[in-house]
Amino acid sequence: MARALSLLALSLTLCHAALGARYVASVIGTNVSSKLDPAGLVKPTFSGYLPVASDGSAMYYAFYESQSAARAEDIGEAPIVLWLQGGPGCASTFGAFYELGPWSVNPNLSVQRNPGG
What we know:
Structural class: alpha+beta
Number of domains: 1
Strand content: 15-25%
Shape: globular
Radius of gyration: 15 Å
Helix content: 25-40%
């Protein structure tokens, strides 16, 4: 039961972060888009850590603004997707870089825009 409540709290926290990502990023995250995409072709990407316990434990998050919104005003209309993946031997970052995220990692470890992300 405690685990289910923790997951619910995490989901609500991530939704709150999605609604105010710029605020969250200014407090605990970093806009990494400029490092990966100096040409500015991909909308902002924020990452950081969300505190989850009083002992200092934190959970890593990555927030990608909608890549399909044609205008900045349309960002708020885009649906929010909460991607939870992971477990022993499979980190969520794998799914972000090889499946759903706006970036893909090439075999030579360079980064390119993911057309399906």
